[in-house]
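not sure who needs this but someone in the group chat was asking about DNA mismatch repair protein MutL from hydrothermal vent metagenome so here u go. i didnt clean anything up, its just raw.
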Amino acid sequence: QLLFPLSLEFTSTEIAILQSLKEQLENTGFIFSKLDKDIVELKGVPVSVVESNVSVVLEQLINDVENEVPDNNFSQTDMLAKSLAKSLAIKAGQYLTVQEQEYLVNSLFACKEPSISPTNRATFITMNVEDLDKKFN
């Protein structure tokens, strides 16, 4: 829960998208105190979402819903999880401590599918010494 409610402004179309996802968002840890017209007021966010990133996370989610090609293989909850993963991902150039790096690698390999991202991209590659030498020589 947040110490103070967080108010965010969205268009009526964006509010409609958030309303359609309200139950799934609440299941992930978002707690809405208001969701109408052009205002979203949150009194709680998931533990993994930093308060300063809430608007970015919700905007990314709305963008994904608006631009995502419907896929019958994935539920709305899966799409939400994919969008949250994408918006909360560690960005290029972001500094991580050794402990954070170890946690990240351990968490990756604890996943059901560690070699594929939520967007079906490879998460890592394996190279032998000869291939590595070719890259630098």
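also The mean pLDDT is 87. if thats useful
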